[in-house]
Amino acid sequence: MIRFTKHAQEAISARDIAVDWIEVAVSAPDWVEPDPGHPDRIPSYKVIAEHDGRVLRVVHRPDGDDILIITVHFDRRARR
Q1: Is CATH 3.40.50 the right assignment for the domain spanning 2-74?
Q2: Distance between alpha carbon 68 and the CA centroid of its chain, in Å?
Q3: I need a labelling partner for 27 at 20 to 30 A (CA). Which of 2, 20, 61, 76 fits?
Q4: pTM above the 0.90 mark?
Q5: pLDDT, tens digit, for every residue of 10-56?
Q6: DSSP letter, residue 57
């Protein structure tokens, strides 16, 4: 089950990000990069064709059997 922090919920609403995009970014990312400052967090990246090919960055971590979404945004600096 995917759960969201309050910050992630606010970001989704403010940035008009579809939950479906987040789910696919976590389950089938285009790439993943380690976060040296937070080794328990996983930044996943997904190109969203429906959003002009912009790159969605979803930071998440395991939380028991769940996945906790910490933050989400379109990353202008992300390059594949």
Answers
A1: no
A2: 10
A3: 76
A4: yes
A5: 999 999 999 999 999 999 999 999 999 999 999 999 999 999 999 99
A6: E
